[in-house]
Amino acid sequence: IDPMYQYSLDWYINLFETSIDTAEKSKILEDRLKYLNENFLYLLYKNICKSLFEKDKLLFSFLLVININMNNKILTSNDVRFFLQGNISMEITERNPYPQWLSDKSWLDVLGMIDNVDNMKSFKSFFMEVISEDKWIE
User: Fold this and answer.
1) Beta-carbon contacts of residue 80 (< 8 Å; ≥ 6 apart)
2) What distance in Å separates the CA atoms of residue 72 and residue 29, rounded to the nearest whole number?
């Protein structure tokens, strides 16, 4: 990590206090907390991106989204590992239905995604339905 990317505790405290002042108000605690969280994340993102080198902005955005989604239980560490590493299995457990346009490696990735990513369990039936349509076959 570039040493220029160091922020002081005072900087975070000031940013947090600003988010408290500028977040939408609500008398309902759950709503107020939601508004504070959303506003703080927005200010954090906006202010950090101002100081990032252009080449680092995409990586920062990716890491922020991954961490938010993991904290919200939308993604698991297994999901993230699969998307970063890909399918490590070399064994085709099901025959490739369309080898004329879908490589065995891509088919392995589809099978691996279905097996390893919790939110993608139903993807196989969707995938098979979509690719069976004539417009996908040359």
Assistant:
1) 66, 70
2) 19
| Contact of 124 with 110, CB cutoff 8 Å | yes
pTM of the model: 0.68
The rounded distance, in Å, linking the Cα atoms of 95 and 32 is 53
pLDDT at 57: 93
Instruction: Catalogue the E-assigned strands of 57-136.
Output: none
Burial status of residue 62 (CB atoms within 10 A of its CB: 0-12, 13-18, 19 or more): exposed
Give the SS3 label for residue 74: coil
Q: Would you state the structure tokens that stand for residue 39, as one six-digit string?
A: 């506003």
- Six-digit token pair at 67? 């961490």
Distance CA 9, CA 22 (A): 20
Q: Closest by alpha carbon to 93, among 78, 81, 107?
A: 107
86-123 pLDDT tens trace: 888 777 788 888 888 888 888 888 888 888 887 888 88
Instruction: Calculate ∠ Cα 72-38-67, nearest 5°.
Output: 35
At residue 122, the pLDDT reads 85
